[in-house]
């Protein structure tokens, strides 16, 4: 059985039929991104590894919850990982560093590539540059609110306290921040619909 | 919370970013059930946050994560696991006594010089009774030579012997699916039995070949693996029936860690 060219959606169908190798295919495709996200959020390799395992365990046990018509598999699996990481952060009451501290200091060369395909690796690096550049276009308070919420797992109340702003303002900052991020990505030729394609 | 005609438009970004309290989250989910437009907006916002997830750039998860996950999955299901040892162990690609392997692989003068150096070295440290360190170094040199791998591009593993006389060294390229195992001092096995080599990870073992040593107790074999050698954590040598075993038996002759 060859899994070359197997789409994510077909892999999920195979998983629902009990095909463990299909899960390994998806692990190979998204495990690295899930681990990177988890590690960036919880700042702990062991905890991030647990999140990776639990994320794909949920893919295995709850694959029927994935609805292809509502979005891509990659979006779904990363949302699972994000949710688990936030749970872990709130459980530990641990707050990670801000994104600019954690990421901006790194150079692209320091980011280990897990993909041997040169073209794919190049696209991953280029995409990362575009994402970081798009984030930079957001007004500071909006970018900070989005990063505190997404990477730091902070509630809007906690962000409000940190930014000394009403919750309604924080909600607006988050909404505008995501909208401007989408616009900035699209302005750089990245279609939102192409997430994880 | 902000509402427009009972549609939580203004809260969707906070909801997708998981920054709303659980009671508010439940309220939003109730409204989403009856609002196709809201659900579409949530899907779009999730696509945007997926780009946030990609900003860190992918990193290789720890090597044990995948195996632990798959072990958990196969332990709770009745489906076949790709980690379960094959029903029949594969035949090793090559089973040759060390001496023949050396002469067969290298020009005669190089092999002779190599063996000469070994003999001279052996005599210098006490004739027939080599000191352990010298014997180990010799075995290492033999495995390295047989592997054909440049020293800088290969890795080594030592196997500890249950019996005092046996010794083994493995030379391998982590990215390749084979390795060269040189052994010496192995006792002769009983008729109807043979040695079998196993590669293991997280308590699961796969057969990597079986062999019977030459009369002098030495042998060199090429191990075959279904995955790159870097995938595995341990190596075992056991005594098994001549027909081969699908799982390691209890007679462990040697073991080592990568």
Q: Which helices and strands occur, and which strands form pairs?
A:
The complex is a heterodimer of chains A (197) and B (258).
Chain A: H1 8-16, H2 20-42, H3 45-61, H4 73-92, H5 99-102, H6 118-136, H7 140-150, H8 156-163, H9 167-187
Chain B: H1 12-16, H2 22-33, H3 36-54, H4 63-75, E1 95-96, H5 98-105, H6 108-124, H7 132-147, E2 155-161, E3 167-172, E4 178-184, E5 193-201, E6 204-211, E7 219-224, E8 234-241, E9 252-257
Antiparallel strand pairs in B: 1-7, 2-3, 2-9, 3-4, 4-7, 5-6, 5-8, 8-9
Which features does this protein show?
heterodimer; A: 197 residues; mainly alpha; 0% strand; B: 258 residues; alpha+beta; nine-stranded antiparallel β-sheet; 7 helices; 35% helix
Summary, kept brief:
The complex is a heterodimer of chains A (197) and B (258). Chain A is mainly α.
What string gives the helices and strands of chain A in order? HHHHHHHHH
Q: Based on the structure, what is the oligomeric state of the protein chains? A: heterodimer
- The largest beta-sheet of chain B arranges its strands as 1-7-4-3-2-9-8-5-6
* Helical proportion of chain A, percent range: 55-70%
Strand-pairing-aware structural class of chain B: alpha+beta
Shape of chain A: globular
Helices and strands of chain B, in order, run as: HHHHEHHHEEEEEEEE
Largest sheet of chain A: none
**Uncertain segments of chain A of ≥5 residues (pLDDT<50)?**
99-116
Q: Largest sheet of chain B at a glance?
A: 9 strands, antiparallel
What would the principal axes of the Cα set say about the shape of chain B?
A: elongated
Strand element count of chain A? 0
User: How much is the average pLDDT of chain A?
Assistant: 82
- Structural class of chain A, by secondary structure, is mainly alpha
Residue fraction in strands of chain B: 15-25%
The number of helices of chain A is 9
**In angstroms, what separates the terminal alpha carbons of chain B?**
57 Å
In whole angstroms, the N-to-C terminal distance of chain A is 24 Å
Supply Rg of chain B.
29 Å
Tally of individual helices of chain B: 7
Low-confidence stretches of chain B: 80-132
């Amino acid at each position: 059985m060859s899994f070359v060219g197997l789409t994510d959606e077909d892999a999920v169908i195979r998983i629902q039929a009990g095909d463990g190798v299909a899960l390994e295919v998806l692990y190979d495709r998204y495990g690295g991104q899930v681990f990177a996200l988890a590690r960036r959020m919880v700042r702990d390799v062991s905890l991030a590894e647990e999140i990776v395992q639990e994320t794909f365990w949920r893919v295995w046990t709850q694959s029927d919850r994935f609805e292809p018509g509502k979005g891509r598999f990659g979006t779904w699996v990363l949302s699972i990982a994000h949710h688990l990481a936030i749970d872990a952060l709130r459980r530990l009451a641990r707050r990670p560093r801000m994104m600019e501290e954690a990421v901006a200091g790194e150079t692209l060369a320091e980011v280990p590539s897990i993909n041997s395909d040169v073209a794919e690796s190049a696209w991953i690096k280029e995409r990362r540059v575009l994402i970081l550049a798009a984030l930079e276009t957001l007004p500071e308070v909006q970018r900070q609110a989005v990063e505190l919420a997404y990477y730091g797992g902070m509630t809007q109340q906690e962000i409000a306290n940190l930014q000394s702003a009403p919750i309604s303002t924080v909600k607006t900052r988050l909404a505008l921040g995501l909208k401007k991020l989408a616009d900035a990505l699209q302005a750089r030729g990245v279609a939102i619909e192409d997430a994880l394609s | 919370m902000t509402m427009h005609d009972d549609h939580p438009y203004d809260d969707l970004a906070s909801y997708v970013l998981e920054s709303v309290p659980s009671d508010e989250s439940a309220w939003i989910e109730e409204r989403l059930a009856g609002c196709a437009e809201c659900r579409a907006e949530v899907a779009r916002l999730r696509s945007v946050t997926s780009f946030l997830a990609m900003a860190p750039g992918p990193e290789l998860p720890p090597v044990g994560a995948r195996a632990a996950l798959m072990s958990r999955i196969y332990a709770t299901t009745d489906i076949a696991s790709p980690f379960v040892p094959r029903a029949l162990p594969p035949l090793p690609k090559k089973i040759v006594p060390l001496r023949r392997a050396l002469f067969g692989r290298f020009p005669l003068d190089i092999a002779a010089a190599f063996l000469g150096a070994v003999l001279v070295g052996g005599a210098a440290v006490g004739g027939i009774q080599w000191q352990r360190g010298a014997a180990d170094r010799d075995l290492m040199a033999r495995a390295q030579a047989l592997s054909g791998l440049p020293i800088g591009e290969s890795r080594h593993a030592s196997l500890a012997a249950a019996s005092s006389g046996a010794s083994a060294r493995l030379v391998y390229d982590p990215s390749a699916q084979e390795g060269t195992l040189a052994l010496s001092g192995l006792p002769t096995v009983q008729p109807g039995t043979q040695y079998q080599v196993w590669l293991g990870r997280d308590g699961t073992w796969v057969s990597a070949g079986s062999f019977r040593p030459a009369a002098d107790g030495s042998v060199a074999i090429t191990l075959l693996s279904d995955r790159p050698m870097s995938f595995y954590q341990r190596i075992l040598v056991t005594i098994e029936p001549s027909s081969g075993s699908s799982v390691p038996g209890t007679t462990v002759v040697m073991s080592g860690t990568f």
